[in-house]
What does this fold into?
Amino acid sequence: MLDFGEILLIGAVALVVLGPERLPQAARTLGQWIGKLQNYVSQMRVEFDREFHLADLRRLGEEARASARSVETAVRSAATGVESEITKVATDAMAPLGDNSWSSGGPPPPPMSFARRYRPRPSIDDLTQEIERLKRQLALPDGAARSRQKFAPRARINRPRVRR
It folds into this structure.
Protein backbone atom coordinates (compact mmCIF):
# COMPACT_ATOMS: atom_id res chain seq x y z
CA MET A 1 0.00 0.00 0.00
CA LEU A 2 0.93 3.62 -0.06
CA ASP A 3 2.67 5.34 2.82
CA PHE A 4 1.61 8.71 4.20
CA GLY A 5 4.46 10.49 2.45
CA GLU A 6 3.53 9.04 -0.93
CA ILE A 7 -0.13 10.02 -0.48
CA LEU A 8 0.95 13.55 0.46
CA LEU A 9 3.13 13.74 -2.66
CA ILE A 10 0.24 12.59 -4.90
CA GLY A 11 -2.04 15.19 -3.29
CA ALA A 12 0.49 17.98 -3.91
CA VAL A 13 0.88 16.98 -7.57
CA ALA A 14 -2.93 16.85 -7.98
CA LEU A 15 -3.22 20.33 -6.45
CA VAL A 16 -0.67 21.73 -8.89
CA VAL A 17 -2.15 19.95 -11.94
CA LEU A 18 -5.89 20.43 -11.23
CA GLY A 19 -5.87 23.61 -9.26
CA PRO A 20 -7.76 24.49 -6.10
CA GLU A 21 -11.17 24.82 -7.86
CA ARG A 22 -11.33 21.39 -9.50
CA LEU A 23 -9.46 19.38 -6.81
CA PRO A 24 -12.50 18.83 -4.49
CA GLN A 25 -14.65 17.64 -7.41
CA ALA A 26 -11.89 15.30 -8.60
CA ALA A 27 -11.45 13.95 -5.05
CA ARG A 28 -15.22 13.35 -4.80
CA THR A 29 -15.22 11.52 -8.16
CA LEU A 30 -12.20 9.46 -7.10
CA GLY A 31 -13.98 8.55 -3.83
CA GLN A 32 -17.09 7.46 -5.73
CA TRP A 33 -14.99 5.25 -8.03
CA ILE A 34 -13.23 3.69 -5.05
CA GLY A 35 -16.62 3.08 -3.37
CA LYS A 36 -17.98 1.44 -6.52
CA LEU A 37 -14.84 -0.69 -6.79
CA GLN A 38 -15.19 -1.81 -3.13
CA ASN A 39 -18.87 -2.59 -3.69
CA TYR A 40 -18.03 -4.66 -6.78
CA VAL A 41 -15.29 -6.56 -4.90
CA SER A 42 -17.62 -7.31 -1.97
CA GLN A 43 -20.34 -8.53 -4.36
CA MET A 44 -17.86 -10.81 -6.08
CA ARG A 45 -16.69 -12.13 -2.69
CA VAL A 46 -20.30 -12.86 -1.68
CA GLU A 47 -20.93 -14.58 -5.02
CA PHE A 48 -17.83 -16.77 -4.65
CA ASP A 49 -18.82 -17.69 -1.09
CA ARG A 50 -22.32 -18.58 -2.29
CA GLU A 51 -20.93 -20.79 -5.06
CA PHE A 52 -18.57 -22.56 -2.66
CA HIS A 53 -21.46 -23.08 -0.24
CA LEU A 54 -23.64 -24.48 -3.04
CA ALA A 55 -20.84 -26.82 -4.08
CA ASP A 56 -20.60 -28.08 -0.48
CA LEU A 57 -24.36 -28.56 -0.37
CA ARG A 58 -24.32 -30.48 -3.64
CA ARG A 59 -21.55 -32.71 -2.32
CA LEU A 60 -23.49 -33.32 0.92
CA GLY A 61 -26.62 -34.08 -1.12
CA GLU A 62 -24.76 -36.66 -3.17
CA GLU A 63 -23.37 -38.26 0.00
CA ALA A 64 -26.88 -38.38 1.49
CA ARG A 65 -28.26 -39.97 -1.68
CA ALA A 66 -25.48 -42.57 -1.66
CA SER A 67 -26.11 -43.46 1.98
CA ALA A 68 -29.87 -43.60 1.31
CA ARG A 69 -29.24 -46.01 -1.57
CA SER A 70 -27.07 -48.23 0.63
CA VAL A 71 -29.72 -48.24 3.37
CA GLU A 72 -32.39 -49.04 0.79
CA THR A 73 -30.43 -52.01 -0.55
CA ALA A 74 -29.81 -53.27 3.00
CA VAL A 75 -33.52 -52.99 3.83
CA ARG A 76 -34.50 -54.74 0.61
CA SER A 77 -32.10 -57.61 1.28
CA ALA A 78 -33.38 -57.93 4.85
CA ALA A 79 -36.97 -57.86 3.58
CA THR A 80 -36.30 -60.64 1.09
CA GLY A 81 -34.69 -62.69 3.85
CA VAL A 82 -37.70 -62.16 6.11
CA GLU A 83 -40.10 -63.01 3.27
CA SER A 84 -38.25 -66.26 2.61
CA GLU A 85 -38.40 -67.15 6.31
CA ILE A 86 -42.13 -66.36 6.41
CA THR A 87 -42.84 -68.52 3.37
CA LYS A 88 -40.78 -71.33 4.89
CA VAL A 89 -42.71 -71.14 8.18
CA ALA A 90 -46.02 -70.94 6.30
CA THR A 91 -45.22 -74.05 4.26
CA ASP A 92 -44.16 -75.88 7.41
CA ALA A 93 -47.40 -74.86 9.13
CA MET A 94 -49.52 -75.96 6.18
CA ALA A 95 -47.80 -79.36 5.93
CA PRO A 96 -49.99 -82.29 7.04
CA LEU A 97 -49.40 -83.34 10.62
CA GLY A 98 -48.33 -86.85 11.52
CA ASP A 99 -50.59 -89.15 13.56
CA ASN A 100 -49.72 -88.29 17.15
CA SER A 101 -52.96 -89.44 18.75
CA TRP A 102 -53.19 -91.61 21.90
CA SER A 103 -55.36 -94.14 20.13
CA SER A 104 -52.32 -95.87 18.76
CA GLY A 105 -51.58 -97.32 22.17
CA GLY A 106 -49.12 -96.62 24.86
CA PRO A 107 -49.61 -95.55 28.42
CA PRO A 108 -52.05 -92.72 29.19
CA PRO A 109 -50.58 -89.42 30.29
CA PRO A 110 -49.89 -89.05 34.01
CA PRO A 111 -52.53 -87.19 36.02
CA MET A 112 -51.82 -83.55 36.69
CA SER A 113 -51.85 -82.42 40.29
CA PHE A 114 -50.80 -79.07 41.63
CA ALA A 115 -49.57 -78.26 45.10
CA ARG A 116 -51.37 -75.49 46.98
CA ARG A 117 -49.51 -72.27 47.36
CA TYR A 118 -51.39 -71.01 50.39
CA ARG A 119 -53.05 -72.34 53.48
CA PRO A 120 -56.83 -72.03 53.18
CA ARG A 121 -58.45 -69.62 55.64
CA PRO A 122 -61.88 -70.07 57.21
CA SER A 123 -64.77 -68.46 55.40
CA ILE A 124 -67.05 -65.74 56.81
CA ASP A 125 -69.80 -68.27 57.44
CA ASP A 126 -67.43 -70.48 59.42
CA LEU A 127 -66.37 -67.50 61.53
CA THR A 128 -69.97 -66.45 62.32
CA GLN A 129 -70.84 -70.02 63.31
CA GLU A 130 -67.80 -70.11 65.60
CA ILE A 131 -68.82 -66.80 67.24
CA GLU A 132 -72.36 -68.08 67.83
CA ARG A 133 -70.98 -71.28 69.34
CA LEU A 134 -68.73 -69.32 71.69
CA LYS A 135 -71.64 -67.08 72.75
CA ARG A 136 -73.74 -70.12 73.60
CA GLN A 137 -70.84 -71.64 75.46
CA LEU A 138 -70.44 -68.50 77.58
CA ALA A 139 -74.23 -68.19 77.85
CA LEU A 140 -74.23 -64.49 77.09
CA PRO A 141 -77.53 -63.03 75.96
CA ASP A 142 -77.49 -61.01 72.77
CA GLY A 143 -78.25 -57.69 74.50
CA ALA A 144 -75.72 -58.20 77.30
CA ALA A 145 -72.79 -57.79 75.02
CA ARG A 146 -73.94 -54.26 74.19
CA SER A 147 -74.55 -52.32 77.41
CA ARG A 148 -75.13 -48.60 77.87
CA GLN A 149 -71.63 -47.85 78.99
CA LYS A 150 -68.99 -47.94 76.43
CA PHE A 151 -66.15 -48.51 78.86
CA ALA A 152 -65.79 -49.79 82.40
CA PRO A 153 -66.71 -47.27 85.14
CA ARG A 154 -63.86 -45.26 86.55
CA ALA A 155 -62.68 -45.81 90.04
CA ARG A 156 -62.81 -42.43 91.76
CA ILE A 157 -60.97 -43.50 94.84
CA ASN A 158 -57.65 -44.03 93.09
CA ARG A 159 -57.61 -40.66 91.33
CA PRO A 160 -55.28 -38.02 92.77
CA ARG A 161 -57.04 -34.91 93.93
CA VAL A 162 -56.20 -31.73 92.04
CA ARG A 163 -56.66 -28.47 93.91
CA ARG A 164 -57.03 -25.23 92.15
The radius of gyration is 55 Å. The chain has two helices and no strands.
